[in-house]
Amino acid sequence: MWSICQKELRQFFSSLTGFVAVLLFLLLSGLLLFVFPDTNVFDEGYASMDVFFQMAPWILLLLIPAVTMRSFSEEFRSGTYELLRTRPLTTLQLVTGKYLAALCVVVLSILPTLVFFWTIDHLSAGGTDRGGIIGSYIGLFFLSAAFTAAGICCSSFTSNAVLSFLVSSFVCYVGYYAFEALSRLTLFEGGPDYYVELLGMELHYRSLSGGVVDMRDLSYFISVVLLFLFITARNLVRR
Description:
This protein has one domain (2-238). It is 77% helix and 0% strand. The protein has helices at residues 2-13, 16-34, 41-44, 50-68, 73-78, 81-85, 91-110, 114-123, 130-155, 161-183, 192-198, 201-209, 215-238. Helix 9 (130-155) runs parallel beside helix 13 (215-238).
């Protein structure tokens, strides 16, 4: 499993694609926080990273599919998947190794944003809401873990990396926002709207971003990750 993880990390950072994806995420996040009008902290007048945590999921909707789109699709296209199956690895180890590698790349993209937190915290007179920011980072990590699992799953269904990117972006969008949108329909008013919203990731992400780490939210994200990884493993067994 760890050999697969290391291979994927070396492959991702052996070309400019990996570095460009990470740099674009950091650049766009920095522009939103410090440069763009109506979103930067200087115009807001508050020492807060709320804008970053509101926009980060939408940026990750593009970043994570770009990271995961080649995970299995490239193996299928180049014919190296058959070589992978000759290694003494179970399907679960193969899936887990690729998943952990992709998640490491995403985490390495998010970690440098701690510099933004450090900058805002030192620029403010009274400091920042550190508890809320820590909760938001925890929520962002689990949301990224769910998006990564979805991307790995979509990559296992096709040998076309571009198609994998498009489908995984759509699946992540549906998982994050579609249930929130559905809950607003008049059809679900008066009670069912809450349960429909519970199915989506946005409600649980917002809950964690409030600074309250609830085991129900963590259990939700862990369940989503396990579900996508299970589907991936079953799909590979069928192949």
